[in-house]
Amino acid sequence: MAAFRLGPEPRAMTTTFDMMPVAIVEGCYPDKFGVPRQPGLASSATARLVLQPPFDTADALRGLEDFSHVWLTFVFHRNPTAWHALVRPPRLGGNRKVGVFASRATHRPNRIGLSLVEIAGIERTPHPTIIIRGHDLVDGTPVLDIKPYLPWSDSVDNARAGFAPAPPPQYAVIYSEAARKTLATRPDGDALVTLINDVIAQDPRPAYHRGNTERLYGVRLRDIDVKFRETVLDGQCTLKIVAIDTP
Amino acid sequence: MAAFRLGPEPRAMTTTFDMMPVAIVEGCYPDKFGVPRQPGLASSATARLVLQPPFDTADALRGLEDFSHVWLTFVFHRNPTAWHALVRPPRLGGNRKVGVFASRATHRPNRIGLSLVEIAGIERTPHPTIIIRGHDLVDGTPVLDIKPYLPWSDSVDNARAGFAPAPPPQYAVIYSEAARKTLATRPDGDALVTLINDVIAQDPRPAYHRGNTERLYGVRLRDIDVKFRETVLDGQCTLKIVAIDTP
After folding, report:
1. pLDDT tens track for B98-149
2. C-beta atoms of A47 and B75 within 8 A
3. Which of B15, B154, B222 sits opposite A4 (nearest CB)?
4. Domain at A23-154: CATH architecture
5. B3 contacts in A (CB within 8 Å)?
6. How high is the ipTM of this complex?
7. For residue A154, what are the CA distances in angstroms to A92, A150, A163, B159, B241?
8. How many helices and strands (H and E) does chain B possess?
9. Are strands B129-133 and B112-123 parallel, antiparallel or unpaired?
10. Does domain B172-245 have CATH number 3.40.109.10?
């Protein structure tokens, strides 16, 4: 298909753009490992999005309470700046390669991420802050822009989505007696169980680790360390919370 | 609503991030004036998205043909870098102010734009290029990232969208005999009529110019200059294409 071209030759641009964080994420994922691979998968996860100087005025948030969701443009700041033209999405079992621009891989040029999150609240003092829910952002993530979600402009009926046509499968999550006991001692125990279920059900392990029932994994959530292991229950791959390490 | 906070105090970040264009837009809108205020409003508008060195490898686009839409993160490079905490959206008639983060205004911190566009084709030689349709990007726009649209992650049922709950109204567009004649001389005349209808029907004028039937406006599309004026037809505000100036 032809598209109009103003000049005969493609143009080059050597300008670069210096971006400042407008907000910083304070959230429940201290590490990259375990962070949901898309927003909305862990719907219980909340975070604070604290505006940064010189953008930290409550005026900049005026009217945002009339919207239910926002887009966040952020930087995968904990990722190396190296990028590759081809990546191996976990959805393809880590075997097949696709182009970096045909994926949402975190290793990418400019390390730009995009997340659609729910607005759970807005605080104006002492620091202008948006409380967000269902996020997929590592604690400390710099956010470069915040825009309201417009349903009539931002959603497409019958879109084709290649290798990722549906949400990834969820796994059953079970708890050891020891893990249950530790959680029972926490005032935020119920919220933690919901968060652990959301996060572990997605199986944060690399695709090629599936089927390995020997190895023990650790995911940090808030201030706890969740130890889990694959186990087989009724012939089904299940993820078992073996222990909870607390500070 | 409370969200978990790891530390007692909000953190500050003074790091900035230097971004390189991964692609440049070659499109039908040489100027800012007339560009649709959201993608999808001018569904006929096509553009070429030409990958830039060092990202200009066809590998980076592998598998993208299996997706129908992409998100583009770009820079409003023709806008001043100045920003204001409060903006006056055209949707509110230019009277009411809302916070910059509750709007998609182009005058914003980091000048970051976000567009959902349809993939109309992919070219691999001589320059890796995505042909996009239904875009809202000025010719020459630097694109910082390209990501596939994921329907199960990127759309929300029953989202609330404050002051912009539905697409903006469309106006009737009529043509003078002179404009019709000029368009008939162009090999791309039919495509131009579709594009002109799409663009002018949205009324690109500032909200406070509505009702002014005196003033003549010019919108550049591709290599033509479209002159239009508000007129009243059957008691309805109508936009009349008065003349088409060609090179």
Report:
1. 999 999 999 999 999 999 999 999 999 999 999 999 999 999 999 999 999 9
2. no
3. B222
4. Beta Barrel (2.40)
5. 26-27, 46-48, 120, 131-132
6. 0.93
7. 26, 6, 21, 11, 30
8. 3, 13
9. antiparallel
10. no
